Amino acid sequence: MHSLLKRSILSVILVCSLLMLTAASALAQGGIARYPHLPSGYSSIKVFDRHGRFAGRILPEKRFWISIEQIPAFLQNAVIAVEDARFYEHGGIDLRGIARALVKDVVKGKLVEGGSTITQQLIKNKYLTGAKTIERKLEEARLAMEYEKKYSKKQILEMYFNEIYYGNGAWGIAQAARIYFDKNPDELTDAECALLAGVPKNPGRYNPLGKSSDVSRRRDVVLTRMLDLEMISAKQKQKLRTRPVTVVQRGQAPYYLAHIRDELVRKFGARIIDQGGLEVTAAMDLNLQKLAEKTLRDGVKKVSPQLQGALISLDPATGDVLAAVGGVNFAKSNYDRAFVARRQPGSTIKPLIYAAALEVGITADSVWDDTPVAYNRGNNQTWKPFNYGREKYGALTLRQALAYSNNVITVKLLDTIGVPYFTGFARNAGLPLRASNDLSLALGTEDVTLHDLVAAYTPLANGGVKSEPRTILRIYDKKHRSWADNPASATQVLSPAAAYITTRMLKDAMVYGTAKSLKPFSQKRPSAGKTGTTDDYRDAWFIGYTPHLLTGVWVGYDKPRPGGRGFTGGVVAAPIWRQFMEPALASGPATDFPQPETVVTVSVDPATGSLATPDCPEKRDELFIEGTQPTVYCPKHGGDALNPEPPSPSDLPGDGAPVAEPPPPSPPL
Questions:
Q1: Alpha helices, H only, 21-112
Q2: What local confidence, expressed as pLDDT, does residue 100 receive?
Q3: DSSP track, 150-206
């Protein structure tokens, strides 16, 4: 106690000594505005979801300056009353205030109050740290007196209002008025001013979005001080205490709104954010967005708190992005892993290869062998792909190969249709890939975004029609009172038959394949999907869909590193997908994918791919694009007797030479 008293008395002596000095100002001369002046008539960009529910605002990130004439007199008086009642009387430091603060310090036994003037607070915010030391207070006092010599009281007050922190990222009264009330400072009411005047004491606690009891109590302190100083009457105080104030709540869907900001900048240029005045109707469904955020956060945390993730869900018919989450915590990391981050997709790229193969006449029941083959990469180098876990299944139909995510057969399939053809096919579907890539493309070795990968699945879920994803439906310009629509865009990039058969193949992946953990879900709701896991278990994916909702999930580390054995799409990403899809679809009917007329169903022997005979020990109905179905019965089980007799020479045209079969279709380049 005695030590503190000595230090406190010493500080008074030193401050008094400073008052006796005539120090030359070492500060630069010039204008006081440090930022661009606030544009007149500004209003923030408001974002609403597809149902008209307010989702949040898009505000300029840069700071603006406002002149003292644009700051309400009530706010000026309120701040002076609660922060520095003798502001217009002292020369930068207030000896009465210091003496009062020292008494409190001694009583409390610690430095709890500094007796700072508005000028000192301005100095501390601009130049010094917040450390409560005598040395810092002395430097603060010296600079404050220099400021008082250099600037008028109005200039100092103007600088104070533009420099002080108001919480929630609001530096200066211009940002504070905009963030909390969506107004310019000169539009603030007296009741709103009373709230803001109390914030600088403790911005984290007393800002208008803080705990209502704390905020109200601090406002009452402001009003009481104004009454004591006869700035307001008792009647005014009571009126302002009871007057309701509407505070703009924190924005929702931060990742989605950040993407809309980027879209607006791409469309209109960076100045559009500073100009404001727009009302944006987003494709978002706010309920699904909240569900997606919670599901991703909880699902990723269950695996590991250090992991990150992303989720995109859209309507495959329109491309409307109903939910988009770029990470598990926007406040800690605003990096967008849904639209921006690029990672290897692993096996989630395989359905596109199989769809491309169906399109050129290869059938789902064709039998392939998964014996590994070495491929020449040039420069005397070879590459031999293996299955996950190096399993060998032997002969498999393409349907089975996709369900089991067979690597070897997929590489052979890509080799058959050709890399240039497939990259062109993928590009048309919405997934830009390098044509120069080699057969390793079949294993998902080229980086893609979750957004582009999900977009490329829309033709599979939508009868071969690619729907361009869109996050903005329409924009209203309040200044010009005009609307700008962003219509849906769709293109047929795949035959309805190939899309349907690929989807039915992906149904099997959820019944007995790599996503078999989703079998109960698929039995309740017709659905299709594909897992993806990259080398060393670095990325876990699942892309799945019903006729009305397409959702993709990615989980991994921002700095790629192995997640450990078992870190697979089926184990990590698929459960998150299910946790989102079940409630997202709960209110809708469980409809199936419509079968096109160009798809025919034929009973085949799965071992041979031929038409099944009565003696075939195993039969299965298989789907074919019309014209590609088998026409020969199984030769192993009595098919020869059922097959039609070859034509005799007399039945042949011309000189009796057989008519040549047309060559099989070659992949378009």
A1: 73-83, 95-108
A2: 61
A3: HS-HHHHHHHHHHHSB-STT-BSHHHHHHHHHSS-GGG--HHHHHHHHTSTT-HHHH
- Pairing relation of β-strands 278-282 and 45-48? parallel
SS3 602: strand
Task: Show the tokens assigned to 190.
Answer: 């007296």
CB atoms within 10 A of CB 203: 17
Sorted by sequence, the CB contacts under 8 Å of residue 534 that are 6+ apart come out as: 343, 344, 345, 346, 444
Q: Which residue reads 């800002």 in tokens? A: 207
Q: What is the pLDDT of residue 500?
A: 98
Contacts for 576 with CB less than 8 Å, ≥ 6 apart: 295, 296, 299, 300, 309, 311, 542, 553, 555
| CA pair distance 419, 76, nearest whole angstrom | 70
Residue 76 CA to residue 301 CA, distance in Å, equals 47
Looking at the annotation, which residues are catalytic?
A: 83, 347
Q: Supply 333's token pair.
A: 């990391």
Helical axes 419-429 vs 350-359, angle rounded to 10°: 110
The predicted structure's pLDDT at residue 647: 58
- DSSP label of 315: -
Cβ(182)–Cβ(44) below 8 Å: yes
d(CA 267, CA 481): 19
Where do runs of H (alpha helix) occur along 308-418?
Answer: 350-359, 398-403, 407-417
pLDDT given at position 432: 93
Distance, CA of 143 to CA of 146 (rounded, Å): 5
Tokens of 16: 């008094």
For the chain, list residues with pLDDT below 50. 1, 4-5, 9-10, 12-30, 111-113, 652-669
pLDDT value at residue 641: 74
Report residue 448: phi and psi, to 5°: -140, 165
CA gap 627, 623 in Å, rounded: 11
Q: Which of 448, 462, 465, 470 is nearest to 541 (CA)?
A: 448
Question: Could you tell me which residues come within 8 angstroms of residue 481 by beta carbon, excluding any fewer than 6 positions away?
Answer: none
How far, in Å, CA of 172 to CA of 162, rounded? 4
Computed on alpha carbons and rounded to an integer, the radius of gyration of the chain in Å comes to: 35
Q: State residue 664's pLDDT score.
A: 41
Q: Are the beta carbons of 660 and 640 closer than 8 angstroms? A: no
pTM greater than 0.70: yes
Which residues face 545 on adjacent strands? Answer: 528, 550
Residue type, 324: A
Strand intervals (E) in 182-307: 278-282
Q: What sections of 44-172 are H helices per DSSP?
A: 73-83, 95-108, 118-127, 134-150, 153-163
Which DSSP helix (H) or strand (E) runs through 7?
A: helix 2-20
pLDDT of residue 667: 40
User: Could you give the angle at which helices 350-359 and 407-417 cross, rounded to 10 degrees?
Assistant: 40
